[in-house]
Amino acid sequence: MERKGIIAAGNMLVDHVHQIGQWPERGWLVEIVHSERATGGAPLNVLLTLAKMHAGLPLQAVGLIGEDNDGDYITAMFDQYHINRQLVQRTSSAPHLDDPGDDRRRRPAHFLSLSRRQPPA
Predict the structure, then answer these.
(1) Domain count of the fold of the chain
(2) How much is the pLDDT for 1?
(3) Which CATH number goes with the domain that contains 75?
(4) In a domain, 112, yes or no
(5) Which residues pair with 14 in a beta bridge?
């Protein structure tokens, strides 16, 4: 049996990027001057890049995406670039981060501290 093509599995997500004019002081709001979205996750980006290069290889995605606007966006990208999404499932489950005492100001140090925590006994 001859194999031909590339299959990629893993995180498939959408990055929401908001540009602001200046960093707000604590407790203040700031205007978002520009917003855009882009695909994220290595498997998805590799498949899209290969498709845009017209590599001539069959491309297959494997993963789990949301039944939401972001999932619709990813699905549209698969279809636009002719990437087989037969093994991509959709879910309405909504995992999220929750950190007691969090002030909702996310910085890299916040995520580092989460990754160092021990699971509850």
Answers:
(1) 1
(2) 74
(3) 3.40.1190.30
(4) no
(5) 39
Token code pair at residue 51? 């498709």
Return the sign of the alpha-carbon dihedral for residues 97, 19, 29, 22.
positive
Block means of pLDDT (10 residues each) for the chain, 121 residues, are 89 91 87 93 96 94 93 97 96 68 61 50 45
The number of angstroms, rounded, from the C-alpha of 89 to the middle of its chain's C-alpha atoms is: 15
Instruction: Supply the pLDDT for residue 94.
Output: 65
Residue 65 DSSP one-character state: E
Q: What is the 3-state secondary structure (H, E, C) of 7-60?
A: EEECCCEEEEEEEECCCCCCCCCCCEEEEEEEEECHHHHHHHHHHHCCCCCCEE
Q: Which residues contact 24 (CB under 8 A, 6 or more apart)?
A: 30
Note the pLDDT of residue 112.
57
> In this structure, is residue 41 part of a structural domain?
yes
Query: What is the pLDDT at residue 92?
Result: 86
